[in-house]
Amino acid sequence: MASPTEQFSQLSLNDMRFAASDLRQRKRRVRAVLASFDRDLVPSRYRPDIFERIDEEQSQRPSSEWVIGDDILGSLMQKGCHDPLTYGVLTDLEPAGVRVRKFGQKINRLLRREIQRYDREVPAVAEKSLRRRLVLEIAGDILALSRSAHDDLDSDLERDLHNDQENAADVLNNLTQALISVLRDVCSRDEDPYNSSTRRRRLSGGEGEISLYHCLIHSPPRQLDGPDFIIRALQKIGSLAPVTFKDADTRRKLRHIHGSLLAKGAPRVYRDELWGLS
How many secondary structure helices (H) and strands (E) does the chain include? Predict the structure, then answer.
């Protein structure tokens, strides 16, 4: 059992760590901690209802109002942002490096799951409009995950990386390889998986192709608001760890994908941004 002096020291440390961050930083950090224990949700998609509710006005209310009677995780998310002791407990649950490594593994697993879903479900849908709708749905989920890889590194997890320099390079390299692998897989899925004649229509200037490649890179529809698929996440990794893209094998993979995009007639802006990484 900790002595009174040790308990006081810990409380003082929690107070200092709490005071060293503003509410915006605490919100993102607490969200990243709790999302780390969720199998399927990355920080930027974790409990947006609670996240948006947390503000300075809430912090001035009685602490009893931070607790949601039937929601332990929502209660921890709110109280962790306003109470130094709760904030300290949450941020000490696991090392920063573990949290970031789990994030990379989660992003990789969720992206691979969507690719597998595309391969499994799309070829079985004969009706073109239904097939297009399914491809757009899967492409939207993949795009959201690729954006999360950027947004969460840019906010929730960047501080964790700085706090664990020893493992940061390996963690970011593993995430880079996962993103490059998904980019390669999307590039290779450039035909309607139900109808092989799609390729002949595309080469002859046809419109409205149904494939992951077309939805995410070649001609993203308005509802997907592209194209920035994977690129921004890789650029963020490059800003955090420039050495990542000095690796010869990584550069070779990126240049191979660039060549494939050139052959497929991908937008020049996209190709140029990818080339800039290699």
Answer: 15, 0
CB-CB contact of 57 with 76 (8 Å) = no
Q: Are 229 and 145 in contact (CB under 8 A)?
A: no
How many whole angstroms separate alpha carbon 238 and alpha carbon 241?
5
Domain that holds residue 160: 96-277
Total structural domains within the chain:
2
Longest CA span, the chain: 79
Contacts of 46 (CB under 8 A, 6+ apart): 31, 34, 35, 38
pLDDT one-digit tens code per residue, 71-97: 999 999 999 999 999 999 998 998 887
Q: Quote the DSSP letter at residue 8.
A: H
pTM of the model: 0.82
User: For residues 257 and 184, is the Cβ–Cβ distance under 8 A?
Assistant: yes
Supply 250's token pair. Answer: 């990584």
Instruction: Tell me the per-residue pLDDT of 102-133, one tens digit each, with 9 for 90 and over.
Output: 988 999 999 999 999 999 999 999 999 999 99
In terms of domains, do 193 and 259 share one?
A: yes
Question: Residue 204 in contact with residue 196, Cβ under 8 Å?
Answer: no
Residues 173 and 85 in one domain: no
167 token code pair: 């493992």
My answer on whether 198 and 250 are in the same domain is yes
